[in-house]
Each structure stands twice: as C-alpha cells, then as structure tokens.
Amino acid sequence: MHLPDRLTPSLQQLSLISSNQNSGQRVVSIALGTPVTEQSNDMTPPCTLPTYHVGKAPVETNDWESTAIPIHPRLANKDVQGNSETMVTPAAGETLAWAKLSPQLYTKNYQVSGSTSLGYDELGHGAWSTVYRATETPETPLSTLLTPPSSPVSLLAKPATGRVLAIKAPSRKEAHDILYHEARILTYLHCTRYSSDYVVPFHGYDATSKSVVMDAIPWNLEAHAKSCLENTRANFSTRTMLDPICESQEWKSLATQLINGLVFLHSNGCIHGDIKPSNILLHRSEKGSSAAYIPLYCDFSSSRILDGSNASNTAQVQQITALTPDYASPELLTSLHGTAAIATAAADVYALAVTLVVGAIGESPFAGARMEAMKLSMAREGKVLEFARQADQGTRIMKGKIVERCLKDALEKDMEKRFTAKQWQASVNTIFEA
C-alpha cells in the first residue's frame, strides 16, 4: 500500500525500541508520523478494541486445515472506509490488481478473553500492535431478536463457543495504516493457491477496531527453540551434540517447509520483510504425520507486493516498519544510513537462514554481544555461522555437517552471490535426499 506523504518516515525517525516481550531482541523501528520512544513491556490496550464485535457474517471460507484450497472474498475497487461493501470472489487463476485490492472484512462476532478490570488475555505484542486472544461467538438469529425473551437473561451475550482467534490491534494511532496494509497483504495471499500451507489463517480486517483477525496459534519457533535449549542444557548428551538442538529430523522438516513457504511467497510477488523465529508460528501436526509442527509465516506489516507497478519506483515501495538486527542482511543494515530501508527477496533468504541457525542452536548467533552497538557491528559483518560456532551449542553447526551445508549459500554476505529461494529449495532437497 502506498502510504500518504505525511506518513513517509524520515531518517531522523529511526530509533531502537523493544519488539517482543519474550525475545529480548532489539528492533529498529520506522515510526510513521511521530518519533519512536522507548516502550515498556506493558503496553496500554487500544481503546478501540471492543469486547464484542457484531455484524453480518461474511462469505464462509474453508477451514485452513482442509485439503480444499480456500478462495477468500474481497472488496471490488473500493476502500474499506468507503460506502461499498460489494464482495467479489476472484475467479480461478485470476491475477489480482494489488493497487485496487482492499482487505477482506471480518464482520462476525467475537469476544476478547479477559476483562477490563484484570486486563485482556495477551498473546504478544510488538512495536506497533498488541495481539489478544478472542473467541468467535455464535450469531443471534433475527427471529430470536424479534421474539420477547422468556427470561431477563436470555438476550445477554452468549458464551464464546467458537474457534479461538488472535486479534492484532493497533497500540497507537500511527499503526492504523500499517495494520490496514497487513490486512491487504493477507487478503492477497489468501486469494492464491496453497496459502493455507504456509501463511497464518486470516479471517479478515475488523474496520471498527482497525484490527487484523487471524487464528490463534500461541506457539512459535522462538519459544520452541528456547524450550529445546533449556532441555538440552539440562540433559546434555555427547551422542547428540552435533545434531540440531530440536533433533535432526525435526530441523530438516522445519527447514524444508519454511524454504518451501518462502518460495511460495516470492513466487506470488510477496516480500515478507521481517522473517524471524517469533514471526513463525508452529501449529501441531495431526497424529500420524511425519512432521511434529507445521510452520506458518505471520506478521506481514513490513511486507510488500511486487506487481510491476511499484517494482522500480522507490517512492511507491512499502518501507520496513520494524527491523530486528539479528536477522537483517548486511546490505539492509547498511541501507539504514541512507534514505529508506526496503526489504528484498535476497534479504528474506538471509533472514530465514539466520532463523534456521537459531532453530539449530537455540539462540541468536549474536547472543554473546554485550552491547547493542556490538551486535549491530557483528551483524553487518555477515559472518553468521562463524559467530554461531562460538556459542555454547556451536558444535551443532560444524563445517560439513547438515546445518552448515544447508545454510552457507543462503548466508552469503554478497547478495549477488546469495541463493534465491528457488535455488535454495533445490539445493536443500538434494542434500536431504542424499
């Protein structure tokens, strides 16, 4: 989405802020309209977030686990704030016009978990938003509303009995455009084939609270890697000291699925822009599956779509709204000294490779840095594997072993020599088959 000129970030608005309450990572955030200030972990819940949201039900879509390919409705050439609510379902194989695409609206009922006195049930928060747990509530039939109640409580809010949702709500006004843009990205992706295999299930944009409505998946790769690291330190074994921290077969499965997912995104013209362990949700596989988890990409607030209209025009390109130095490519960190930080496909490949390093050793390869300036300096050097080998779990990425062989070409400092997602996919498949 092309942001208004008044919201275009300037270099002076770059600052370091806390991104995730669990990660301890630092984030370079580009504030839209106002300078960024240091935030505490306790973010004020948005005043616009309703306990209940009531409206008419949108067109039903298939559940994300279904083998059928979901096709989501979209608005036809109208902005969400406009008067039209005409929904159009894309025909099979239709190429969406990104410039005219508006987000799919969410108009069902949901109840946010928690209470105003004790606080809402928070799943996490970042630089721009807070994610709350909610439950979809059943619709009240019109006939029921027209019938006099048999008791004083029969028309009170019904208990939440539907699917569990994640409501990504803005933490401040400047985030409204960012979440609106993310909803457009998710609408676009969910109109493509196989999106449910790689992207968090998206249910729509709540125009009332300016929120993005998704499936609630509380486990992510960051938490999983930390859990595996703690378990390994408590139960050290020389037999497995050369294997990835989350076991070799599981790491291979995650690597394969995530690289396939990146090929899916790039093949559909989507640059993610903020790949890191906390932005990869892990959904438990069904019993009998060879993979323990299905990894799904989330947080598309820094993403952009290459549809040909903005590929060569920097003024029209979505700039990065949040950047974690640990996972940023050297060229992206260098660009912060220029006029804009713009995500690229090559930067996505690099970020995913660093993410898979974390999946192998349980922590950032730059975890040993004592100061933020030192971490930035280390990240700019582009020597991820060398720094990771100095960690206490560095034996798991020894030269010639499976992790190093899979990641080295995706971690090339020179972006011209770095694998593309498709090249990486072919290389990893060959390595695993051997």
Describe the structure.
There is one protein chain. Helix content is 25%, strand content 16%. A hairpin with a 7-residue loop joins β1 and β2 (26-30). The strands form 6 sheets. Strands 5, 8, 9, 10, 11 and 12 form a 6-stranded antiparallel beta sheet that branches. A 3-stranded antiparallel beta sheet has the order 1-2-17, with no helix packed on it. α3 (221-234) runs parallel beside α6, α4 runs antiparallel to α6 (345-361) and α4 packs antiparallel against α10. The model is unreliable at 1-95, 149-158 and 310-317 (pLDDT under 50). It is of the alpha+beta class and 434 residues long.
Q: Strand pairing plus helix content: what structural class?
A: alpha+beta
**Assembly state of the chains shown:** single chain
Helix content: 25-40%
Number of helices: 10
N-to-C terminal Cα separation, in Å?
Answer: 43 Å
pLDDT averaged residue by residue: 75
Number of strands: 17
Give me the Rg, rounded. Answer: 22 Å
Q: What is the fold's blueprint, element by element?
A:
Blueprint: E1 14-18, E2 26-30, E3 74-75, E4 87-88, E5 109-112, E6 114-115, E7 119-120, E8 122-125, E9 129-137, H1 142-146, E10 164-170, H2 176-189, E11 202-206, E12 211-215, H3 221-234, H4 248-267, E13 270-271, E14 280-284, E15 293-297, E16 304-305, E17 322-323, H5 330-335, H6 345-361, H7 372-381, H8 384-388, H9 402-407, H10 421-433
Antiparallel strand pairs: 1-2, 2-17, 3-4, 5-9, 6-7, 8-9, 9-10, 10-12, 11-12, 13-16, 14-15
Describe the structure concisely.
The protein has 434 residues and is of the alpha+beta class. The chain is 25% helix and 16% strand.
